[in-house]
Amino acid sequence: MAQVKNGDTVKIHYTGKLEDDTLFDSSVNREPLQFTLGEGKIIPGFEKAVIGMNPGESKNVKIPPDQAYGSHRQELVAEIERDRFPENMRLEVDETINLRQPDGRIVSVKIVNMTETRITLDANHPLAGRELSFDIKLVEIV
């Protein structure tokens, strides 16, 4: 039976949970996730977990932050003067908003705190600094 190796395109089903068993994503009840190992489109720890699997095989893996979305980086948290936002813009703590960078790129940031004069924004990935747990089932090697 063929085992997954770097460069293979695979279809997998997965369920991702946080340390406290909170579900954050799942492909169950959707089409399987398809990707090619080695392209870097999937977090490194997930790719490593799939290598060596056989079609039909299932496993559970824990992926530390350095093999997932990285550590939470304080330099990606910034306080901005509230008056730099349009007056009619709806702003709420825990809301994610998109900001245009000077180079034209769009960056998603989470509002983590607000005062009358300042807004604290966090540009870290929402799962940065978290250990992730995945139930993975290899559906097929394409």
TrEMBL record:
Residues 7-94 form the PPIase FKBP-type domain. One of its GO terms (molecular function) is peptidyl-prolyl cis-trans isomerase activity. It is an enzyme of class 5 (isomerase). Coiled coil: none annotated. GO terms for cellular component: cytoplasm. Gene3D superfamilies: 3.10.50.40. The keyword Chaperone applies. It is found in: Cytoplasm. Keywords: Chaperone, Cytoplasm, Isomerase, Rotamase. InterPro entries: PPIase_dom_sf, PPIase_FKBP_dom. It catalyses: [protein]-peptidylproline (omega=180) = [protein]-peptidylproline (omega=0). The keyword Glycoprotein does not apply. GO terms for biological process: protein refolding. Its EC number is 5.2.1.8. Also involved in hydrogenase metallocenter assembly, probably by participating in the nickel insertion step. This function in hydrogenase biosynthesis requires chaperone activity and the presence of the metal-binding domain, but not PPIase activity. PANTHER family: FKBP-TYPE PEPTIDYL-PROLYL CIS-TRANS ISOMERASE SLYD (PTHR47861:SF3). Belongs to the FKBP-type PPIase family. This is Peptidyl-prolyl cis-trans isomerase. It comes from candidate division WOR_3 bacterium SM23_60.
